[in-house]
């Protein structure tokens, strides 16, 4: 094969078709879901507690939690009629929070942001 058969779009397209990365980034590409993960990085919480922490409606929080749970970012336990949500145990065991309230598994992105994007990214405004 020559170099032209390895064009950027070709590699990325095939790579994404064979990995779950795009699904994870799609799930994490939502501000409310990130705020929920940040809230849960502090401690396990009920839907009502998450509502208070994020300022989002019960419906929006429940929908976002369902998406996060489907991708195993969060888990829950029932206590009476209430469900308590927390970060998936494998995610919460990861070390190295970049700053308080940042889930450990996002610390790599936080470090990248601090070193490369802060005050430089046009998308940040």
Question: What this model shows, in words?
Answer:
The protein is mainly alpha-helical. It has seven helices and three strands, in the order αααβααββαα. The chain has helices at 8-17, 21-28, 31-42, 47-54, 58-70, 89-92, 107-117, and strands at 45-46, 74-79, 82-87. The chain starts with 7 loop residues before the first helix and ends in an 8-residue tail after the last helix.
Element layout with pairings:
Elements: H1 8-17, H2 21-28, H3 31-42, E1 45-46, H4 47-54, H5 58-70, E2 74-79, E3 82-87, H6 89-92, H7 107-117
Antiparallel strand pairs: 1-3, 2-3
Would you tell me which CATH topology of the domain at 7-91 applies? Arc Repressor Mutant, subunit A
Question: Can you name the CATH architecture of the domain at 7-91?
Answer: Orthogonal Bundle
Assign the CATH class of the domain at 7-91: Mainly Alpha
CATH superfamily of the domain at 7-91: Winged helix-like DNA-binding domain superfamily/Winged helix DNA-binding domain
Order of helices and strands: HHHEHHEEHH
Largest sheet geometry: 3 strands, antiparallel
Fraction of residues in H or I helices: 40-55%
Number of helices: 7
How many strands? 3
Radius of gyration: 17 Å
User: Any low-confidence stretches, pLDDT <50, length ≥5?
Assistant: 1-10
* Overall pLDDT: 75
Tell me the structural class: mainly alpha
Shape: globular
Note the beta-strand portion.
5-15%
Strands in their spatial order, largest beta sheet: 1-3-2
